[in-house]
Write a structure and sequence with these properties.
Helices cover 52% and strands 8% of the residues.
Length: 342
């Protein structure tokens, strides 16, 4: 039997697997959704710069619960319809079978490891995305957090020794907030007073997790009261996993009234689901387009292009941009964009 998808390759090797997107936010892709993507029955849902960035986590079936899984970080181009370019996936599968056979969970010798790492379809994610993924997996499999976890908890409660906090510890805390009311309270009360490096690292950790509604609502209220640009950006990032909350929607609309270029980037790259009516009915798209139109033409073009590449958002963006009552500034920016694209 010929193998044409990654799922088939892993099943043939008697492996179980999980799939996560690593492009925008670290978030799971279900087996059903991944199968549809692989068979070109559905576009890749979260492309970044024309690529799908995927983490495949796999392990031998019937293995011990404590076995360490294998990890492939894969980056494949998508076409103009948002579909995976199957030829590139097939090229990767062929190279793996040539190198390893169909038993991909066998231990690799050093030469095989080096050859596999030369694949153009493997990539190294940013440190924070690797940390977020490991935090999610340890929580999912009910394994203890990293050795950095308790120090991160302590520093968030009392940031006197924050310099010793590791990135993995913050991500472990963010992944386990649902069971940690004392840390939720500490972050709610002290987020805007944390030293800037700690606050920024925490915001990145929070953006990759579905944070509890209690914390999201507290941070959203602070965002609506916060004039300092660097604090607004960090608060905004921290809410990326809570866009369904009505208070978060209000905070996003508040920011968009006078959003900076950086805040526009965060909204498009991390909080895009807030503007998808199928995901979040609270936030209209027009305030975002107004904010984009106030930016330089190059930023408007880059961010509108990015929004149009998100499959669930593309129809909504196009319909909105064709409205008869489109504000003059947005209409002008859009016409300049499509005129320059011809």
């Amino acid at each position: 039997m010929s193998i044409s998808t990654l799922s088939q390759l892993l099943r043939q090797s008697n492996s179980d697997f999980l799939c996560y997107d690593l492009g925008r936010r670290v978030q799971p892709i279900s087996a059903t959704e991944f199968a549809a993507i692989e068979n070109q029955q559905a576009p890749y849902p979260y492309p970044v710069q024309g690529h799908a960035c995927i983490a495949l986590v796999f392990w031998p079936q019937l293995s011990d619960a404590g076995v360490e899984p294998f990890l492939w970080f894969l980056k494949f181009p998508v076409d103009e319809r948002g579909l995976l370019e199957q030829s590139t996936v097939q090229e990767f599968i062929t190279s793996v079978i040539t190198l390893l056979g169909q038993q991909v969970t066998h231990a690799l010798i050093e030469e095989q490891e080096q050859q596999l790492q030369q694949s153009p379809y493997l990539f190294t994610p940013a440190e924070e995305k690797r940390a977020a993924l490991h935090a999610r997996l340890s929580r999912r499999w009910q394994r203890p957090p990293s050795v950095h976890f308790e120090l991160a908890q302590t520093a968030l409660a009392d940031p006197e020794h924050w310099q010793q906090v590791g990135v993995q510890g913050l991500h472990d805390v963010a992944a386990r907030l649902a069971d940690d009311t004392s840390t939720i309270s500490a972050i709610s009360q002290q987020f805007t007073r944390y030293p800037e490096p700690l606050r920024q690292a925490l915001a990145i950790a929070l953006e990759h997790q579905p944070i509890p509604a209690e914390l999201a609502n507290q941070l959203a209220r602070q965002l609506q009261q916060q004039p300092a640009a660097e604090l607004r950006a960090d608060l905004l990032r921290s809410l990326a996993g809570a866009t369904r909350e009505a208070e978060v929607s209000k905070a996003i609309e508040h920011v968009l009234e006078d959003a900076s270029a950086d805040e526009c980037v965060i909204c498009c790259a991390r909080l895009w689901s807030a503007f998808d009516p199928l995901c979040t009915p609270h936030v209209p798209l027009l305030p975002l387009l107004r904010a984009l139109a106030r930016q330089p033409a190059t930023i408007f073009a880059a961010l509108v292009t990015d929004l149009l590449r998100i499959p669930t958002l593309r129809p909504h963006v196009l319909v909105t941009l064709q409205r008869d009552d489109l504000p003059a500034g947005v209409r002008e920016a859009w016409h300049n964009f499509i005129g320059g694209a011809r």
